[in-house]
Write a structure and sequence with these properties.
The chain has about 325 residues and is of the alpha/beta class. The protein is built from nine helices and 14 strands. Helix content is about 30%, strand content about 25%. Strands 11-10-9-12-13-14 form a six-stranded parallel β-sheet, with helices on both faces. The chain has a five-stranded antiparallel β-sheet with strand order 3-2-1-5-4. It has a three-stranded antiparallel β-sheet with strand order 7-6-8, covered by helices on one side. Helix 1 crosses helix 3 and helix 4 crosses helix 9. The longest helix is centred in the last third of the chain and has 20 residues.
């Protein structure tokens, strides 16, 4: 089993919570799922599978900014020992005057001890890493994973699970590496494609998935889906053409390219000459990032991440 920390972890994606649960169960360590079932007013998390806690006190995920997690772990351990689900509430109207949420809101949760028959659904959700689906807990205690948005039985607690943001970075140099590292720290799935061996080596040393780009027309397996953001981080823009044409023919939710407005005008001319449509060209965020004319590579990376987060929120709303 992985050495998950005993303190509240910053894992946020439902699939990462599910991985923790499966590893605990396979090690025969009692563990409980924690679903956020309703939020009223301020709250950090949308309804869904947001946390898990084991009998040892180890956790993955979170439901607040540390306001209720310690008590929630105690409630989860009690549910595991009693092998009985528990519904808990915190905040406004909960009757628990010692557990007031500073934001003034209310959060409702369902704690569900994990049994062996829950594991196939959790494993299926983990394996469908790049697919959108629904995790549903039925009134009889069964857990189901379905691809897409499938009908659920009355009374079931059902929540959509989207893929983790995948950021495909194609470029070279310090801005490329700064973006890859920051995106990785932001819990995105990061893949870096570059023609530069130094960039590839440094990214590989940082445990970032890499792929070499060996020629202007060399085929590259970009594996782009609707949950993918693409950032072109070249100063030498001749490398962009093939990748942009491929990217704009996909359902990627974000396509951005480094460079000035003048550089983008030349980029547009080249794309038009290659037969790219006006609709495709209009998808390109250029200059890349929310804040333009930045010089520092780390600030550029922060600006790009912010723009990607805004695009993801606009397309999908939440995980």
């Amino acid at each position: 089993m992985m050495n998950w920390p005993r303190c509240i972890d910053v894992v946020s994606h439902p699939r990462d919570v599910a991985r923790f649960v499966v590893e605990c169960a396979e090690a025969r360590i009692g563990v409980a799922l924690v679903f956020v079932t309703a939020v009223d007013g301020g709250g950090m998390r949308e309804p869904g599978l947001r946390m898990a806690a084991s009998i040892t006190g180890a956790t993955a995920g979170y439901v607040s900014n540390g306001c209720v997690e310690a008590d929630l772990v105690a409630q989860a351990r009690k549910a595991i020992v009693e092998n009985r689900p528990a519904a808990v509430q915190y905040g406004r109207g909960s009757g628990r005057i010692d557990m007031v949420l500073p934001c003034g809101g209310r959060i409702e949760l369902l704690i569900y001890p994990v049994a062996d028959h829950h594991l196939p659904a959790l494993r299926a959700m983990i394996e469908a890493e790049r697919e959108t689906g629904m995790i549903a807990l039925a009134t009889d205690g069964s857990l189901r994973w379905d691809h897409g948005a499938q009908p659920v039985a009355p009374g079931a607690a059902a929540y959509m699970v989207r893929p983790k943001i995948r950021l495909l970075i194609v470029g070279a140099g310090v801005e490329t590496l700064a973006l890859a590292r920051l995106a990785s720290a932001a819990d995105m799935q990061v893949d870096l494609v570059s023609p530069d061996d130094v960039t590839l080596t440094k990214a590989r040393d940082a445990r970032i998935s890499v792929q070499g780009l060996r020629g202007l027309s060399s085929p590259v397996d970009l594996r782009i889906d609707g949950g993918t953001a693409i950032a072109l981080m070249f100063h030498d823009h001749e490398w962009e053409q093939m990748v942009l044409l491929q990217a704009l023919d996909t359902d990627a939710f974000y396509v951005g390219a480094l460079g000035s407005r003048r550089a983008h005008a030349r980029r547009v001319e080249d794309l038009v000459a290659s037969g790219c449509s006006n609709e495709g060209i209009a998808r390109i965020k250029a200059p890349i990032g929310l804040v333009h004319r930045l010089r520092d590579p780390h600030l550029i990376a922060a600006s790009v991440i912010a723009e990607i987060a805004a695009a993801f929120q606009e397309r999908f709303a939440a995980f």
